[in-house]
Amino acid sequence: MKYCGFEIDGQSHYGLVEAVAGVERITRLLLKAPAETGGDIDDLPSKRMDHLVFAEARLVAPVRPSKIVCVGRNYREHAAELGNEVPGEPLLFFKPPSSLLAPGGEIRRPKLAQRVDHEGELAAVMGKRCYKLGADEDTRPYILGYTCLNDVTARDLQNKDGQWARAKGFDTFCPVGPLVTDEINPWSGVGVETRVNGEVRQQGNTRDFIFSLGVIIRYISQAMTLFPGDLIATGTPKGVGPVVAGDVIEVSIEGVGTLRNPVVDE
């Protein structure tokens, strides 16, 4: 099942996304937030609506997390390209919910930063509350679905500050979308690609994670409660690099789609 966030007449809604005659369309209006289903989005109540071509819809972020937990350096080659050691356990940081940005929204390069980088990655949307999961507990029943995320980063501020809250947390620094799906399996391998102005900058696969998604979620749950709707960003492949005003960043994930956002100066 796939769903998105979209806007009609100034009101935000969730909608079911289905292929009709080979074209993805929003076919039904979802009457509850998908994260409120207890992890089974197939049970969502919905009602009929006039179909909208998905590619023509005005999209909004398909998630409303209480927190966005991110994993740094989860690909060996990405750690190496920034001159960092491979971490011995998951390296966690937060992005604030205020950094969320809709598909198509403008990423603003802040005046405070000299270098702003793209970081395309897979994100998991939590579907059930979890805390202190067992060492061998299967985390997949706790996941509602998956989406694309761009962990936009003010690289010079990250290096200057030593901790990452400011560099990762600017408004517009967390584009998410274009939809959420439960029809992929990161454990078996999902391709992740980032393009800037059509040029491929990053290519990776979730098979190359240092820490699997299961390890990541169990690790996070030892420290904090994960709530339905919370977003887990799983790390970015090598190839991160700077963007400037006028660039268009596309994060594509196999089986999910493409998250596209232009860049402007503040």
Task: Summarize, please.
The protein has helices at residues 76-81, 155-161, 165-169, 213-221; strands at residues 2-8, 11-20, 23-30, 46-53, 59-60, 68-72, 91-95, 100-101, 107-109, 116-118, 120-126, 143-150, 153-154, 174-181, 191-196, 199-205, 231-233, 241-242, 248-253, 257-265.
Description:
With 266 residues, the protein is mainly beta. The protein has helices at residues 76-81, 155-161, 165-169, 213-221, and strands spanning 2-8, 11-20, 23-30, 46-53, 59-60, 68-72, 91-95, 100-101, 107-109, 116-118, 120-126, 143-150, 153-154, 174-181, 191-196, 199-205, 231-233, 241-242, 248-253, 257-265. Strands 1, 2, 3, 4, 5, 6, 7, 8, 11, 12, 14 and 17 form a twelve-stranded mixed sheet that branches. A hairpin with a 2-residue loop joins strand 2 (11-20) and strand 3. The longest helix has 9 residues, at 213-221. The N and C termini lie far apart (37 Å). The mean pLDDT is 95.
